[in-house]
Amino acid sequence: MSKSEARKEALKLRRQLSPREVRVLSASVRENLLQLPEYIASRVIACYVAKEHEVQTAGILSVAFASGRRIIVPRSDPSTVTLTFHEIHGLDELRPGNFGVLEPAPDSKTISLTEADLVLVPVVAWDSRGNRMGYGMGYFDRALKDRGRVTCAGLAFEIQLHDSLPSSSTDVPLDMIITEKRVVRFKRGEA
Questions:
Q1: I need a surface site. Which of 21, 44, 145, 153 has the fewest CB within 10 A?
Q2: Three-state SS for 191?
Q3: Domain range list for the chain
Q4: What is the DSSP string of 150-188?
Q5: What's the pTM?
Q6: pLDDT tens per residue across span 64-86
Q7: Which residues, listed in sequence order, are joined to residue 121 by a DSSP beta bridge?
Q8: Fold adopted by 3-185
């Protein structure tokens, strides 16, 4: 199966979830995340802002703000197909940006992803080797390749699991996947 076919299939499956199912499953993903030693020890979290049908992150961000953690979220630049990460202090600082995603203001403080303790990324599909498939533009792969030793976790639903995903040298494997049922850890460089 090609990447585009796998992506199309995974997005179709995810769109079949009702808004209520997405909320309930996302709450379970959040609870699994909050129990992780990596989350408990974190002081700076990089986290995507969820679109419809993705694992919802508003609850994760709210809990992180309430606990005094620093939060950085991505802002996309379609002209360079890159992400920059910006510190926010509340969800009210986000505005509609590219691709229908809420983003921080362009003049908000930019923070290097290497300053994060934990990076939470969206997932279209994943496999048991730690391969993650996104939307196909490579924004997160470009950002993650220079993350250093920062732990990277994909937030996903179990229905997004594939036996094996096609991957290329530009794809950056994850350190772990957090779903509504479990946390799956991978050894970096193993995928």
A1: 145
A2: coil
A3: 3-185
A4: -EEEEE--GGGEES-----TTPPPPSEEE-SS-EEE--T
A5: 0.93
A6: 999 999 999 999 999 998 999 99
A7: 154
A8: Rossmann fold (3.40.50)
